[in-house]
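Input.
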Amino acid sequence: MTQPTPVSGERGRDVSLVFDRVTKKYGRVTAVDNISFSIPKGSLVTLLGPSGCGKSTILRMIAGLETVTEGRILLNGEDVTRQSAIERNVSMVFQSYALFPHMTVLENVAYGLTVSGMAKREASQRAIEGLGLVGLADYGPRLPSELSGGQQQRVAVARALVLEPQVLLLDEPLSNLDTKLRRRVRDEIRGIQLKLNLTAVYVTHDQEEAMAVSDQIIVMNKQRIVQHAPPRELFENPADEFVADFICNANLVSGEAKRNEAGRSECVIGGVTASIPDRQARLGDIRVAVRPDAIRLFGDAGKHSLNGEVVYASFLGTEMQYTLRTPLGELFVRSDEVADPYPLGSRVGIGFADRGLAIVGTLK
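Output.
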């Protein structure tokens, strides 16, 4: 996919961070390959992708913890490519919290301020205000060991916020928390970011987390950007098979586009006709991403042109999940019809919803 080009007017007031054709190499190994993107002020952008795709390396280059091999990095219009970490006004929240166990919560939050030369009294007052932002105003005298994991992560956020950074960096900040706590803390981080109008760059490999907190998501694979878009656009219009699989856990099947009219293609998938958005007006043999929730199941299998057999069924409380054996290959299905589930071995008819399908390529 073509890389996003650097924004025009990259020194404009509305842009906080610019990556301009940045490459990072470790000897012969390329960790980041010719990356370009821009982040508007006050927005939260997530770098999302599998392990080893380069997202954490990008975060460390923004922080000045890694040098750039080629290209430029600009913060608020200033070229900081060759500046050291201490010369850049950015703060990072690490996944490990990195709190000093022998210091109180208040001392941990004030640490960066005192090291930078701020008077102890002023640093303590700023730290108290920072703890108030994250809902821990009364926890200053405690030690980190007296806090829960979620509270420790909020202390780490407060420590970063009191430095008043131009850009807040968050590196897998929720990876050490359990599922329920992750949801609560991610909402708190997003709320603080919106309240303070912070520019933030967030790294995760969790698709749901990225969808929940982001204004924009940069999806990476093999050290390059494959799509940069708002969460809804990524979900409904994945750029290729990788994005469809990684973001939506979509089924990837083959079909044929018969005709295109008004930005939609009439497609045949396994004998079933479906209308799919397609601005490129592609015709002929195509690859289609079908989200698991876009597949409709019918008990009267013989009346439908596409049938399948239930080879796996799982009850998850609010939904059923099925794996079907079909002429298209195995299909993963999510259904909110939980009252009367299909048992293993059932023959079912298969249809498609009006939404949840996307053309992600052509077959030559």
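The radius of gyration is 24 Å.
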